[in-house]
Every structure is written in C-alpha cells, then in structure tokens.
Amino acid sequence: MSKRLEVTIFGTQYSVGLLRLNRVMVKAGMKAYGPRKWNRLVNDIALRTHSRKLVNEISHTIGHTIKVEYYGTGIVMQGNGFGMEVFHGGDFFSVDMVKAKNKTLQPSKLMKDYKKGDMLGVFWARRESAMFFRWEDVDEPDQQDIALVYDGMGPVLARKRAFDLALDITWQGRKGRRVGMDSDGEFETQKHVFHMVK
Prior knowledge:
The chain is α+β, with helices and mostly antiparallel strands and 198 residues long. It has four helices and twelve strands; from the N terminus they run E-H-H-H-E-E-E-E-H-E-E-E-E-E-E-E.
C-alpha cells in the first residue's frame, strides 16, 4: 500500500554565498555606503536576504554588477548534532546507510576567468535548524533508494577538514518536496573568507 515518505535532516544549518568582487567595486561601495554598511550589504546580497530590485539599485549606485557565483543552504554533516530521521506512513523507518551525490566547490574552478584584482568573497551564517522532505504514494521504501545531496565547502571556506553541506534528499533519483525548515533562532554571521587573484 502506498504511503507518504518523510525525511528530516537536522543539526547546524549554514547558508553560504559566494560573490565575485574586485578592488574597484569594493572601494566604490565603501565610498557610497561607508565601510560598515557596505560590509552588511554584500553579506546580505550573498546570503540572499535582499530583493533583486535592491541588488540592482546597489549595482547601479556603485557602477558595477554584483554577481552571486553560488548560494546554498543546508545542514553541515560534520556537526555534532547532525542526524536524519525517516518515516513511512507515519511509522519510523530504520536507515543505517544512504547513498550520496556530491560535488566539491574549488576556488580555482570558480575563479578560472578572474583577472588580477578580482576576488571571490565567501559569506556565511549559521543557526540550528531542520529540513523536511516529502514524497507521496511510496510503496515499501528501500534505504538504497534514498540519497543525500551535498556540496563540499571545505576549500572555499579555507578549511583543511571536510565541511559538507547537506542540501537535499532524493528518493529513487527524484527530489522530495521540501515542506519547510524549522529553526529556533536567527542566523549568526561567520567571519568572511576572501580568495584573491594575485
């Protein structure tokens, strides 16, 4: 009998945004908005808390287009509180291993067409959270059909150890309907990272 399949992943959620910047753009932004406000604006643009209209206005003001190279939000798999729960028809479904689909973000690949003076700005923030996914009309599930989709963020965050961000869950190759996120707090901004072209 077909039932609803529900998967929850929980732990520390990170939102990560990568911006293409250059020295001329940064100087223009600080001149137009002041260093503190400019810093807050680029952070918010990278983490997608501003409307496209406002981003266009800021780009117009400074005379340069601000380009988001990447944005992702998910649960870090190396966190102490990382976990996953699976339910089928409301009953707990035991899972001890799932497949994985992943890619690792490398600054050198993202910056391959950058010129001298260009930089990749990495902006990130964290909070405790959970992500919920759902599929309807699922017969008997098999843990082999469940895959965790994640991006390896270690290189862009200038970390030596793995920092894998679980972004999505698939079942039989199909994305689940993300039915929400649950969080008990505001995002806490982390220290920015910059990769420069020398």
